[in-house]
Design brief:
The complex is a heterodimer of chains A (about 400) and B (about 400).
Chain A: H1 17-49, H2 80-113, H3 118-132, H4 136-148, E1 158-160, E2 164-167, E3 170-173, E4 175-178, H5 182-210, H6 216-234, E5 239-242, E6 245-246, E7 251-252, E8 255-257, H7 259-286, H8 289-297, H9 302-332, H10 336-339, H11 344-356, H12 359-388
Antiparallel strand pairs in A: 1-2, 2-3, 3-8, 4-5, 6-7
Helix pairs in contact in A: 2-3, 2-7, 2-11, 3-7, 4-7, 5-6, 7-9, 8-9, 9-12, 11-12
Chain B: H1 2-14, H2 35-43, H3 48-74, H4 99-111, H5 119-137, H6 144-164, H7 182-207, H8 212-227, H9 230-244, H10 253-278, H11 282-290, H12 295-325, H13 337-345, H14 355-389
The chains are: A alpha+beta (about 400), B mainly alpha (about 400).
Chain lengths: ~400, ~400
């Protein structure tokens, strides 16, 4: 019996897909390495020629500029590193507040868009279509230049009942000063929050075991809000307010909210809420109608049906795009630079970059911050998704 | 009593006096259930909550709309040539939008500082671009394959020569520093789309490639760019790009911004295209392989045509985002449409207290028309594709 020729006919190496793949990859790597090397080489040469220092030595140098809003101690003699933290905290402040308000507004508008009330649905639709289609930067400039900067001057400030002043320098809120007895109220608040959590756990267990429902909302509200207030009243309101007083050119006392901050917050919240509304609407529509009908046929009223059946299922669809909207809001907060709110980009990639000239380091640090925020958020998102994913048989 | 009984009996014996030959016309529905009133009861006042909501919304409309109409149209100033025309006068105490300002500066908003005698070139560019957009957007247009070549190759080259100038063919050079207004906004968007789509397709293919190095590079690029704000990318392009080149190389300011915008948009396009690629069933790849097609032929002839078709709505949505994001170039000092508004509103010739609002209203209407138009188009394509899938 003749041996069967089993080996394939010999082909040239260039027709072997595996060899070609390796060749392509080696070429790509070589190209990238060459580009990176030449970029670094050129940059080093250019920087040396311009006599710009390299490295992160500038971090501890004196910054020498002032920042209009600082959450931590900062003065002109502080270091660039300190300025970085001030900027980062300002960014996180605007992003945190923006996320909270945009979520509230977005959910309201998203649900309103699905309302059976024709007028409500139409108005919510109009809001979404208009706001989404106007660039955020234009909206920020409008709020800042056309609304907040057009407010009356310090001497003719609007007085809002409660001692708040509003003028073209910003919003001035009364500043609460807590007396020594106020700590009892603080203790009561902490106790109330803990008690509310314990109560919720107990109520849920009891409902699981016996089916009896407990008025969770009212009891929690009572524990968290009413209890501290009662303690505050019993201890004789040890809180005084420093009211902002308008002087000739300036305002003394009170908490100052910069117009830049307000414009940025308004702009971000209003813009992002339109996108969140669409996310919410899509999420609710993604829950099949049978679920609502099943809930009705079990005798649930529309409110509980929405709360207990539709929303928990819709959340599974809503949360991933919602997170990416939160990230967008955070990234969009960099537009602060256009209206002069001292966020990370304005302070660091703006002033610090101009003063030190160390473009590469400054931009790399700034990008790394945003990249970290995104990566951490999407990591958490993936964890959440794994927990919430439908467990199928 | 009995008298009546006998007469009815007699009548019955004669047979029925009247039999309806035709069915009765149906009664009109109750007034409360039909027509405008019924519609309102059903859609506006179906419950106590809805009554309250309707009243609140109506109040909101009454509070917002008349002042807006009054501001934009009734009290608006349409004619004038200096700021005094837009200031309140005794005979006209209420001043609305100062459209005279927009009419006066419309050429500045459109062309920036482009030399007046050369502006026809910009107009030709607008026409060329519009033709390309229509060719691409009209799904039943003839020879769409030629349209692709026109849009991605011919038009960019011709436009570049036209706008920048080429003394050899008799077009004077116009430096990009004198470009401005809508021209720059349109150029940035057009360059963004023309470059980001092909780069995005390559990145999306790279991300789904079998080759680990290619995949890794694509993933890093896409995730990096999507993780940072556009402003930092623009800063990087405008500050760091010149550092990376040789000493004599100083790229044009607009070019730097264009590179930044294109790379940024490419990462987003890549994800959109990847979603489309993932939607193509595996059988398509296998069928292509079975008939002996190589990688590029499989992709070019079988997979990409289907994937791109279903991604059109998302590509348009990304383009809307890109169009809105072009406003950010103004932060790195490029004279785009929004920047011309900013410059004109503080111009002492026109600066009045209300001029900012007018400028922003005009810009808002401009962006609203284009973005809303594009989103309607995306929805139309979506509906049409859905119709194709219906059996």
């Amino acid at each position: 019996m003749a041996a069967v020729e089993t080996s394939r006919p010999k082909a040239l190496l260039i027709y072997n897909p595996k060899a070609r793949g390796i060749a392509y990859q080696v070429l790509l790597c070589a190209l990238i390495v060459f580009l990176a090397w030449s970029a670094i080489h050129n940059a080093a040469e250019n920087l040396a020629r311009a006599k710009i220092a390299t490295g992160f030595g500038f971090w501890d140098n004196t910054a020498g500029f002032d920042i209009s809003q600082t959450l931590i101690e900062y003065s002109t003699t502080s270091s660039y590193g300190r300025a970085f933290w001030v900027g980062l905290l300002n960014t996180l402040l605007i992003a945190g507040l923006g996320v909270v308000f945009a979520t509230i507004l977005g959910f309201i508008i998203g649900i309103a868009r699905l309302s059976k009330n024709w007028l409500v649905a139409r108005m919510a639709g109009f809001y979404v279509e208009t706001i989404r289609n106007i660039p955020l930067l234009l909206q920020l400039l409008f709020w800042y230049n056309a609304v907040l900067k057009a407010l009356p001057s310090v001497r003719e400030s609007f007085t809002i009942p409660g001692g708040t002043l509003l003028n073209n320098r910003g919003l001035f809120l009364p500043q609460p000063v807590f007396g020594p007895a106020a700590r009892f109220a603080l203790i009561a608040l902490v106790f109330g929050i803990l008690a509310a959590i314990v109560y919720q756990v107990w109520a849920r267990r009891r409902q699981m075991a016996t089916g009896q429902q407990a008025p969770i909302l009212w009891v929690s509200l009572g524990l968290v809000v009413a209890l501290p207030l009662a303690v505050l009243a019993l201890s004789g309101f040890p809180v005084t307010f420093i009211y902002p007083e308008s002087g000739r050119f300036n305002i003394r006392g009170g908490i100052e909210v910069l117009p830049e901050f307000m414009a940025l917050l308004f702009g971000l919240v209003i813009y992002t809420a339109a996108f969140i509304a669409e996310v919410v609407r899509a999420g609710i529509l993604a829950v099949v109608r049978g679920q609502t009908e099943a809930a009705y046929s079990l005798g649930l009223r529309p409110g509980p049906a929405l709360r207990l059946v539709v929303i928990p299922q819709a959340m599974r669809v809503i949360v991933p795009p919602l997170t990416s909207q939160y990230l967008n809001l955070t990234k969009n907060s960099t537009l602060a630079v256009a209206i002069g709110y001292p966020d990370l980009v304005q302070i660091f990639a703006g002033t610090v970059l101009n003063q030190t000239g160390q473009a590469v380091e400054v931009i790399v640090i700034t990008m790394a911050v945003y990249l970290t925020i995104s990566l951490v958020t999407s990591g958490l998102m993936n964890l959440y998704n794994r927990r919430m994913a439908l467990v199928e048989r | 009593m009995s008298d009546i009984a006998t007469t009815t009996d007699a009548k019955l014996m004669e047979g029925p006096a009247f039999v309806r030959g035709q069915p009765l016309a149906p009664l009109p529905p109750p007034l409360a259930e039909a027509g405008a009133i019924g519609w309102m009861r059903k859609n506006l006042f179906s419950s106590t909550l809805n009554v309250v909501l309707t009243i609140v919304c109506a109040a909101l409309i009454v509070w917002l709309v008349p002042p807006l109409v009054k501001y934009l149209l009734i009290d608006a100033v349409w004619e004038g040539s200096i700021r005094a025309d837009c200031l309140p006068r005794p005979d006209r105490p209420e001043i609305g939008a100062c459209w005279a300002f927009v009419i006066d500066r419309i050429n500045f908003f459109t062309y920036g500082f482009y030399p007046i005698e050369e502006r026809w070139r910009v107009n030709v560019f607008f026409v060329l671009l519009a033709a390309g957009v229509v060719w691409m957007a009209w799904l039943d247009a003839p020879r769409r394959d030629l349209g692709v070549i026109y849009f991605f190759v011919v038009m960019p080259v011709v436009s570049l020569i036209l706008l920048l100038g080429w003394p050899l063919v008799g077009l004077a050079k116009v430096p990009t520093t004198s470009w401005g207004g809508v021209l720059v906004t349109v150029v940035v968007s057009a360059v963004g789309i023309v470059f980001s789509l092909p780069i995005g397709i390559v990145l999306a293919l790279g991300r789904r490639s079998q080759m680990p190095a290619v995949r890794l590079f694509s993933v890093i690029f896409i995730e990096f760019v999507r993780g940072v704000p556009l402003i930092t990318v623009l800063f990087m392009a405008s500050v760091m790009l010149p550092l990376f080149g040789p000493e004599t190389w100083s790229p044009d300011k607009l070019l730097r911004a264009l590179v930044g915008v294109s790379l940024f948009a490419a990462a987003y396009m890549a994800e959109v295209v990847r979603a489309g690629l993932q939607a193509i069933p595996k059988g398509q790849y296998e069928a292509a392989m079975a008939v002996g097609l190589g990688y590029w032929k499989t992709m070019g002839l079988i997979v990409l045509p289907q994937a791109l078709k279903i991604t059109i709505p998302n590509i348009v949505n990304t383009t809307i985002g890109l169009f809105k994001d072009t406003t950010l170039v103004f932060i790195v000092g490029i004279f785009d449409f929004l920047m011309t508004i900013e410059a004109a509103r503080v111009d002492p010739n026109w600066a009045t207290p209300g001029i900012s609002t007018t400028g922003y209203a005009f810009a808002a209407i401009f962006y609203l028309i284009f973005c809303y138009g594009m989103s309607r188009y995306a929805r139309f394509v979506e509906a049409r594709l859905a119709a194709g899938d219906r059996r």
